[in-house]
Specification:
heterodimer, A: mainly alpha, rod-shaped, B: mainly alpha, about 0% strand
Chain lengths: ~160, ~150
């Protein structure tokens, strides 16, 4: 099976059965890494904490506050992604150091290259969460035509 | 047997998705908090048993300690921003239309709470950075003979 296909299959399996098979605290020794769980908040936790759609209804500066809250929401989503990027980098650096230890020559090169490819895939996923879920949610809180913050300001 | 990097990455994603969110205080404008707590960071890291490598174990422990501190400081920065955002929006909503002394009087309890929260966060940061050092030291002690 090609490496990319193997990874995709592994990821799909992980998503489907992950909750059942792996508790939130796995053994580090089995992973060869310093992390047992993600140290960052999730995208939904961040956007949930910035659900400002009904926060300013009836205030004179409603629209201004909506826009300010949207900016804070977007900044928090970007900070969450930065946290995830750092987590991915650190996870990969430590795990690859252990995994590739003792190898030499082309074996070591292949081992490192495999980790680099995985990191690239991981970073793509993080960007997708940020750009396709997190930031659009902040924008929807502001601009949604039926229940967005600006719409609420107009008394509807 | 070595795991393939792909399998390890899948496991990392699984941990990312399966991790249960810890109980957290309310956020600036909605339920939940946009940040992990410094304690969440400590709980997410376990390197005190050392690293199974032939060479460079002590160096990895040192780097792991720095990584731990970096993540604690990141969580603290996030929480500080959240505290400030909460105070700002609460003042804007609670004290709307107030000016001069009336505004100061209205905003004072919010500012006092913000300052208390920031002080408590600073204390929490120091304690969790100590935890990182403790983990790094324990890690290094496991490296004896492998340097």
């Amino acid at each position: 099976m090609a490496r990319t296909e193997r990874l995709r299959t592994a990821l799909a399996l992980a998503f489907v059965v992950g909750s059942a098979l792996f508790p939130s605290t796995a053994s580090r020794a089995g992973l060869g890494t310093i992390f047992t769980q993600d140290p960052c908040p999730s995208v939904s936790e961040v956007t949930g904490a910035f659900d400002f759609r009904d926060s300013f209804v009836g205030l004179a500066k409603c629209e201004q506050l909506c826009k300010k809250a949207a900016a804070s929401c977007a900044a928090a989503v970007k900070a969450q992604a930065s946290c995830e990027f750092a987590f991915a980098n650190d996870w990969t650096a430590f795990d690859s150091a252990v995994d590739c230890d003792g190898l030499s020559g082309s074996d070591k090169k292949d081992c490192k290259a495999g980790w680099s490819a995985d990191l690239k895939t991981w970073r793509t996923q993080i960007k997708a969460f940020r750009d396709q879920i997190g930031l659009p949610t902040c924008d929807s809180f502001l601009n949604n035509g039926s229940n967005g913050c600006l719409r609420r300001c107009s008394g509807i | 047997m070595r795991c393939t990097p792909g399998a390890r990455l899948a496991l990392a994603f699984t941990l990312l998705c399966a991790a249960a969110p810890a109980a957290r205080a309310d956020g600036p404008l909605g339920p939940g908090a946009p940040c992990s707590s410094p304690q969440d960071v400590i709980d997410s890291m376990a390197f005190e048993t050392g690293f199974a490598v032939a060479k460079g174990c002590a160096n990895l422990c040192k780097k792991a300690g720095s990584t731990c501190a970096k993540n604690v400081n990141r969580a603290v920065s996030c929480q500080r921003k959240s505290i400030d955002d909460s105070a700002y929006f609460q003042t804007q909503v609670t004290c709307e239309g107030e000016k001069g002394q009336a505004l100061k009087t209205c905003a004072k309890p919010i500012e006092d709470q913000r300052n208390a929260d920031r002080d408590a966060l600073d204390t929490e940061r120091d304690a969790r950075l100590d935890d990182c050092n403790t983990k790094a030291q324990a890690c290094a002690e496991q490296c004896s003979g492998t340097n």
